[in-house]
Amino acid sequence: MAAESTRRRLTSRQAETVRGLTEAAVDEVRKVGFDRLTVRNVARRAGVAPATAYTYFASKNHLVTEVFWRRLSALPVVDGTPGRGRVVEVLREIALLVSDEPELAAACTTAMLGTDPDVRELRLKIGVAIRGRLRNALGSDDQKILGALELAYSGALVHAGMGYTSYARVADRLEEMAELILPDS
């Protein structure tokens, strides 16, 4: 088995199909935006039947959340001396995962708020991964500080999604929040 999906373990061929679908989803978001994105059109762009796409993804929210999950999972392991500087780096790298593509960033924010079970499962994985990255960067398991950092991150994404700030500015805002939350180090 080559990779894992939210729905099942994949063979190499299946993993390639899923990779093609996630890449096609990014292209489709760039072309038509999230509102007009459909799994059917993504399947067409990826060169597979819609039924094949629905084998792996229950909805467009599931598909776009998978795009974010894959980008997050591809980040290098948090390394270096723990402290505020490392936390700021982690927050910045997570915020910048999709910030250079505002349409994709908005799509990811919207998709991750989806309610279908596959999105909820991925959202949980994403939350656990982000918490782990923050814990490693902080060098501590202080639940209050980790919770505050997580709320700052999720709140910043919602702010950008609502148009109150740009996705590019989110990284700077998160640095400001980290400075308020964390003692000097």
TrEMBL record:
Species of the source: Actinomadura harenae
Residue ranges for the DNA-binding region feature of this UniProt entry: 38-57
GO molecular function list: DNA-binding transcription factor activity; transcription cis-regulatory region binding
Assigned keywords, A-Z: DNA-binding, Transcription, Transcription regulation
Listed InterPro entries: DNA-bd_HTH_TetR-type_CS (IPR023772), Homeodomain-like_sf (IPR009057), HTH-type_TetR-like_transc_reg (IPR050109), HTH_TetR (IPR001647)
Descriptive protein name: TetR/AcrR family transcriptional regulator
PANTHER family linked: HTH-TYPE TRANSCRIPTIONAL REGULATOR BETI, HTH-TYPE TRANSCRIPTIONAL REGULATOR RUTR
Domain named HTH tetR-type: residues: 15-75
